[in-house]
Amino acid sequence: MTTELTDQQITSALQGISVPPQPQIMVDLQMEQVMPDPDLKAIARLISQDPGLSGSLLKIVNSPFFGLANRITSIQQAVNLLGVSRVINIVNAQSIRGELTDENIVNLNRFWDSAQDIAMTCMTLAKRIGCVEPDEAYALGLFHNCGIPLMLSRFPYYIEVMEDSYAQDQARIVDIENQRMNTNHAVIGYYTAKSWLLPRHLCEAIASHHNAQQLFLAPGSGDATQKNLLAILKMAEHICQAYRVLGNQKVDHEWNAVGHAILEYVGLSEYDFENLEAICQELTATGEGRYYQD
């Protein structure tokens, strides 16, 4: 099953929202990536030209969330060890924060804190469960809600709509947004990820990330790759309490509806999940997660 949206659907959904272009460094990196024989030294050199990105990359890959046995000390070493695609996934995810940060929108502070916690928790879960590559889990965690800052910029009342959508126990979060604004942050995020040339399966996971009930409760729904990604993401969102941070709610209605099916899908008992939850929350509570985002 594909969730790819048509150009007409995307144009309609954008509702006048302007999606930022990729930074030139990402354009250059992806041009090098598609060469028949990518030059690893050239890729490392490009990343090293941006002190912020290169510093963030090293902090992420050396974090306990990523779980490497030996410390990486240079960008060249990171590229050689992890490979071009993995490094670009991480750098791309880091870049989106810089492009979507607006000091005039106070609510973005809690959004980016939440996104970073979720991204790091996605990496931890991916390493421990093993069904998703850690770099893809990280990129999905940081990118999946990238439509939210764009919605905030376009609709000043979006926070109220988002909190109302998280309060519903009989409707999807995106359903409430569609009713109120004729668009939603998942489709805006999909278009942004597609424009930034994220892998297609990550784009489709972003488009479907509030469609978990259909994917996990309806027989035969979704392919394994998409379900693996969304299982990791939904667990991470619940662990990091996105329903509190973003939705201002005391109850995670989405998890209550589909959590049992997700745990069954990945082969975790409630006890196993509670242990993982405690580990991840301890890391984020001590600042380990946000430490790796300057």
UniProtKB/TrEMBL annotation:
Q: Which Pfam families match?
A: HDOD
Domain of life (superkingdom): Bacteria
* Boundaries of every HDOD domain copy: 19-212
InterPro entries per the record? HDOD, RNase_Y/CdgJ
SUPFAM superfamilies xref list: HD-domain/PDEase-like (SSF109604)
Q: What is this protein called?
A: HD-like signal output (HDOD) domain, no enzymatic activity
